[in-house]
Each structure stands twice: as C-alpha cells, then as structure tokens.
C-alpha cells in the first residue's frame, strides 16, 4: 500500500542556514511516527515544510498520492492535513470556541463544524467548560489542548504535532500522550515531534532520529527504545 505521506530529499533553508538537508521518510495510514532529535535538528522545519508554512528549497512531499510540495496551508487543510504548532500559538483575545472555529475555516458545512466542536469537546471536556473564556486566560496545559483541538477541527487524516508536551506538568503530559493514542484509535495518522523520547517511543509505531538536518537513525519504536542511550547520544541530554 502506498504511504499516506512520502517525503523525499527534503531541504529547507533560512537564508544561509540549512535547517533540513535531504530528509527522506514515509508515514503509512494509521501510524504514529515519532521524530526525535536535539534542539535545532530540523524537526520543526520538517513539519512546517509539510504543512506549507515554510518553503521546501528542494525535494518533494506527497500526501495521499498527490504532490503537495508547493501547496499553501489553506489548500492543505481541506485535503486532510493539519498542524498543531510548537509553542501553542492560540489566539489569546478570542474565546476557546472561537479559537476552535478558526481550525474549521475550510469546513463549509455548518453541521460538520458542529460535529467537530462536539468531538473536540468530548476529547477535552475542560475546553467545553471554558468555551466562552478567552484563550489567553487558560493554563499552559489547557492552551496546548486547545491548539491540538483546533488542529482536529478540520477532521484531518494526518495530524502533525509539534512538541505537544513541551512545558507541561507531568500529569498533563500523561493526558496529552493518552490523547494521542485515542486519536490513533479514531483513525488519525500522527507525526509526532517530541523531546520526550521515552514516552514518544512508548506510543509510536516507528521513529526517525534527526541530527543536523538529516535522518541519522530510523526503526520500529520498540527497537529504538531497546537501543537505549538515545537521549544521551542524540539529544545531548
Ligand atoms: P527545536 O526543538 O528547537 O524547535 P528543531 O529540531 O525543531 O528544534 P528547527 O526548529 O527546525 O529544529 O531548526 C533547525 C535549524 O534552523 C536551527 O539551526 C534553527 O536555528 C534554524 N532555524 C529555524 N527556524 C529559523 C528561522 N525562521 N530563521 C532562521 N533560522 C531558523
């Protein structure tokens, strides 16, 4: 079966900085795939290139058999691709419900938007309790849930999650990882960028290790986990 996402020889540059240097990987439908590596390894740049937020300097990105390399984010959302960005990036002066609505901008059918709201509220009851509250007044963990919830509003086939557990209290981190497995059970395919190596490999099917903008390791999550020492070797921990 052809992969849902296929990235070939991807390069991303910011001026003279070569952030991603010839990355290849694929994600099959239904998988959770973890992307691990130190700060600056090129993980966010890779996700952002897939999501159309930064330009692919070279290489190709195929999604569901279609070349999406040069497509803009607003074109990608209706195709079934959504990103929950690093650093939460919610709209602080909008309510929780309005933030969620922003994630459904490509959904024209009002009933579908209502269903999406219901689905997100059932995943995150706290967001329902706070739906009229301004997003800027939520706790860090709640803002993170809102960012993930917003990405889910378009009903994505592939969800790109950039460091969803960053800066969260341990209990909330547990909830975030549990949520990711629930989403997988609901047939959402997930690309997960994380600093939390152990937890990511626990829930992931496979993983890729990035360093210096290149893939330096790949394999089944269980194999990567048993290799051990990953955090020391690759993350400079
Ligand atoms: P982090 O976990 O810190 O986000 P990362 O693995 O996601 O790390 P990237 O954020 O993709 O890595 O960064 C890769 C390289 O590109 C780094 O050297 C970084 O400094 C550089 N970089 C990232 N964004 C920009 C930008 N907007 N302008 C210039 N350089 C950038």
What features would you describe in this structure?
The chain has 237 residues and is of the alpha/beta class. It has a domain at 5-90 and 156-234: 3-Layer(aba) Sandwich (Rossmann fold). It contains 10 helices and 10 strands. The protein has helices at residues 43-50, 73-79, 96-103, 110-123, 125-129, 140-152, 170-185, 197-203, 221-227, 230-235; strands at residues 5-14, 17-27, 32-36, 58-63, 66-67, 81-84, 158-162, 189-193, 206-211, 214-220. The strands form 2 sheets. A 6-stranded mixed beta sheet has the order 6-7-8-3-9-10, sandwiched between helices. The chain has a 4-stranded antiparallel beta sheet with strand order 2-1-4-5, covered by helices on one side. 41% of the residues are buried. The mean pLDDT is 91.
In short:
The chain contains 10 helices and 10 strands. It is of the alpha/beta class.
SSE layout and pairing:
Blueprint: E1 5-14, E2 17-27, E3 32-36, H1 43-50, E4 58-63, E5 66-67, H2 73-79, E6 81-84, H3 96-103, H4 110-123, H5 125-129, H6 140-152, E7 158-162, H7 170-185, E8 189-193, H8 197-203, E9 206-211, E10 214-220, H9 221-227, H10 230-235
Parallel strand pairs: 3-8, 3-9, 6-7, 7-8
Antiparallel strand pairs: 1-2, 1-4, 4-5, 9-10
Helix pairs in contact: 3-6, 8-9
Keywords: Amino-acid transport, ATP-binding, Nucleotide-binding, Transport
Protein name: Branched-chain amino acid transport system ATP-binding protein
Organism: Cohaesibacter marisflavi
